[in-house]
Each structure stands twice: as C-alpha cells, then as structure tokens.
C-alpha cells in the first residue's frame, strides 16, 4: 500500500488530515517529504524574529497537533506513516532551525542536513522510528532528525567554531 496516491478530497476531508498532509504539500507525486520540508521555510522565516519563547511554543504546539493529526490521518489512509503525511517534516525542519539566524546559507544547510538525517535515519533516529507507534512515531523520528541537524548546524555557524563556516 506504500505510495498509494491520496486525492485532494481525501486529504481535506477533515482538519486533521489537512494538517497531516501539510495543507496539500504531501499530495506531490514526487518527493512529498522534500516538498513538505520546503513548505516549512516560510513559517521559519516568519518565526525567526519572534524570540525563543514564541518559537518554542509554536514548535511544541505543532508537535502536539502533529501527533494527533498524523495518527488520525495514518489510520484513515491505512498506513500510519503514509508518504503524503508531511507535517512531521515541517515540524522537524522548525526544530532544525531553532535559534539560528535567518540566512540563505543557514536555511540551505539546515534543509540538506535535515533531509539527510530524515532519509538515512541513523541511530538513534531509526530506533525511535521503529520503536514508537502511532502519531508519536510519525513525529518523533523527525524531531530527532531535527535535533541532530540543529546541533550540527549550531556547531558549524557558531562564532567559536573551528570550521569557520558561515561566519
């Protein structure tokens, strides 16, 4: 059943499925997870200047919404982590970019790092993906990929970093 196309009507039959498919981004026939991550860039750019409390609150609320929405959508589609479900990528990218200034270099590197870890799923991301069920499982592996990407990105852009990148 993996890869079964989801139609517009099916994707928007409830607010929960609309959220889970990233308001349509997950309907892409090509690389819906990548498109879902791209869709996260404008919200990041809107949130980046709001400060850590607002940014973190939006991420935590989005995570909670995602647990419910992705769980319900997965059950409705008959596949808990259906490719059309991209809310996890949106939240994962926001986690990746937490605390980082907006620049095209940061966005590009954050995008590349997040997609790499989300696709490859090294330990512990793979363990979280396989060991957590339902909406939590859909969301937490992407949050873990976002955390790992964020740590690496913070090291690379830190003024005290030995890499000297993006200073």
From TrEMBL:
EC number assigned by the record: 3.1.3.27
Annotated InterPro entries: PgpA, PgpA-like_sf, YutG/PgpA
Membrane topology: Multi-pass membrane protein
Tagged with keyword Cell membrane: yes
GO BP: phosphatidylglycerol biosynthetic process; phospholipid catabolic process
Keywords: Cell inner membrane, Cell membrane, Hydrolase, Lipid degradation, Lipid metabolism, Magnesium, Membrane, Metal-binding, Phospholipid degradation, Phospholipid metabolism, Transmembrane, Transmembrane helix
Reaction catalysis annotation: a 1,2-diacyl-sn-glycero-3-phospho-(1'-sn-glycero-3'-phosphate) + H2O = a 1,2-diacyl-sn-glycero-3-phospho-(1'-sn-glycerol) + phosphate
SUPFAM superfamilies per record: YutG-like
Residue ranges of domain YutG/PgpA in the record: 19-156
One GO MF term attached to the UniProt entry: metal ion binding
One Pfam family recorded for the sequence: PgpA
Transmembrane segments: 12-32, 44-69, 90-114, 143-166
Subcellular localization, as worded in the UniProt entry: Cell inner membrane
Cofactors, names only: Mg(2+)
Keyword Cell wall biogenesis/degradation listed: no
Pathway involvement of the protein, from the record: Phospholipid metabolism; phosphatidylglycerol biosynthesis; phosphatidylglycerol from CDP-diacylglycerol: step 2/2
GO cellular-component term (any): plasma membrane
Main localization, broad class: membrane
Domain of life assignment: Bacteria
Physiological role: Lipid phosphatase which dephosphorylates phosphatidylglycerophosphate (PGP) to phosphatidylglycerol (PG).
Protein name stated in the entry: Phosphatidylglycerophosphatase A
């Amino acid at each position: 059943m993996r890869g079964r196309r989801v139609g517009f009507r099916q994707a928007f039959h409830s607010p929960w499925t609309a959220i889970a498919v990233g308001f349509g981004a997950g309907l892409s026939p090509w690389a819906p997870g990548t498109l879902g991550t791209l869709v996260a860039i404008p919200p990041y750019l809107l949130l980046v200047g709001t400060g850590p409390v607002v940014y973190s609150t939006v991420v935590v609320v989005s995570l909670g919404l995602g647990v419910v929405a992705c769980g319900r959508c997965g059950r409705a589609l008959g596949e808990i982590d259906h490719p059309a479900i991209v809310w996890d990528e949106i939240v994962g990218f926001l986690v990746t970019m937490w605390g980082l200034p907006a620049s095209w270099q940061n966005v590009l590197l954050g995008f590349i790092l997040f997609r790499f870890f989300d696709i490859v799923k090294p330990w512990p991301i793979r363990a979280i993906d396989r060991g957590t069920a339902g909406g939590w499982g859909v969301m937490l592996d992407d949050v873990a990929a976002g955390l790992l990407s964020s740590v690496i990105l913070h090291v690379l852009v830190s003024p005290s970093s030995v890499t000297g990148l993006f200073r």
